[in-house]
Amino acid sequence: MRRAVSKLLLALLSLEAVSMSSFALTGTLADLENATPDTSTPVAQAPQLSSAEETRIDNQLYQRMMKQAHDSRDPKEINAYLDLARKIKSKQLGGADEKSELQSRVDFYQEQIKSTPVNEQTDDLYYELASSNDQLGHPDAAAAVLGEMLKHFPKSNYAPEAHFRIAEAAFNRKQYQAATQEYLAVLSFDDNKYTQQAQYFYAWSLYKDGRFEEAIPPFQRLIDSLRTRASENKRDALLLQDSYRTLSSIFVQLGGVPALAKYYDGKPLSDEETQMYRQVGDRYRDQKQLLDVAKVYEGFVQRHPDDVQAADFSKDAISVYKEAGFAQDIVRSKNEFIQHYDIDQNYYKSATPEQQATIRPVLKAQLDDLANHYDAIGQTQKSTADYLHAADLYHKQLALATEPADVMRIQQRLAEALYNGGKFEDAIPYFETLAYSTPNAKPSDMGYFALLSYQAHAKEIANQPTEQQDAWLDKQLASSEQYAKAFPTDKNSPAVLLALTGKYLDRKRFDVVDDIASRVLALPNGSSADIKTASILKANADFDQQHWSDAETSYRQVLALSTLDTTERTRYQNQRAASLYKQAEGAKTANALDDALKLYQQAGEVTQDAEKSR
Length: 614
What we know:
Number of helices: 31
Radius of gyration: 54 Å
Structural class: mainly alpha
Distance between the termini: 160 Å
Low-confidence stretches: 1-44
Helix content: over 70%
């Protein structure tokens, strides 16, 4: 101990001539205990001191250090002087373990505060006592000391930190209301190194205290301050991420969509709002509440239906419903998507070409899914309304299709949906396009469906004026002729033509029947039954038109058929004979007597043959 005191005394003597500013510049004060005296000037051998003398010197040194601390204005110098004074007082100049050192500091500063009149105290005493308590692991004791310091020195330079440390202690004790007051106190000072942390924990204290709505603005201000720095500072980036997560959790606690709408109501759309809707959706996803995720996305669309990001939110809501398997919501959300983003709606029309290019494939996919859905319901439930809904969706989808194969697929589904929905007239152009103007794996099927559509619509207009029915029959005939021409070897070609002859016979349009029969007879690979029917129709049509020569020729061809029974053969022999008689009468009237005689003779022979065949 004597060596330590002597060493310290020598150091002080050697530094006697050095001004206080020199301490500040050289930094030797903090190392005063280990200072080495200047040996360039001979120093007398230190005398051996008595115990009383040593105590007297210690007191002098102690008083001197305390005075220097009192007179100094530099916090670092003050703390260094006080620490030396403490070591002299506690006789720890030789060093001690850390815990003993800290406890010594606590005891020293407590005594100084107790023994020093209030008007002579400094905030450094309280600060050092609080610091020592904190380092000893007594944060509550440290907070109590800092509270006392603030009572006496409310404008202390240590005030921001003091309020922050008190707030920390209260936060750790879960006394969140007290913590919020102290963090607010920190924020009342000019910007300092505790400002950002205080802002963060102030918001967190409100959150922990269940004051969720009050916590929103502080978290938002914190996010605003961090965004500009997050790209350059990893710590700020992590803090920003945590702040987003916490703020979004607050909105979840407050009910999600209604809370978001309430907070952002009246505010122009910002990147922050968009981001927060995404964040809140993420929090619900973390909790596996997929229905709420979708509702949040739809909530954004309801607030900002015309924003460029609305389509993305709508699309994502549909994806979430599909992920969760909510069938009714899938259908509803897809219908809403189409109603809002279809190409004939204002959203699409006002979008940029780039935005439209982004929307089109998504819109087409929703149209395709929904059309298939309603088509399937129509088939299952035989529902005309669902078939027609599907047809409308196929029609919308067709406007978006670009690939030929896709166009053909959609046209076929559209035509079939219209047909199944009873819109036969509307289905015909699509069937005919597929049959005659589009490369198709089964064009004859499409052409045949067109003819079935004509036939079905003809029944629908059966009570309409004759003129309307006749006009439709002519259209049906034209399509039938087109079918037979396009698919001459198809087994249905003769039938689709022959099916119309009865209606034309009813209308006594024998010329049309004659033409139809001729077309059938010109088809290759016709069945014997079709050939027989067409031949008879043609012969009768020629006869009814009084084309006697043509009729006689046509009946001769009918009689050449091997499929006639006796009765039929007799009938058509008589018809042939009648045709010859009519020709003979015509020749007689024209005074072509020789020709008339020959024709009468032929007619007689045919009549005799008919009688023989009975």
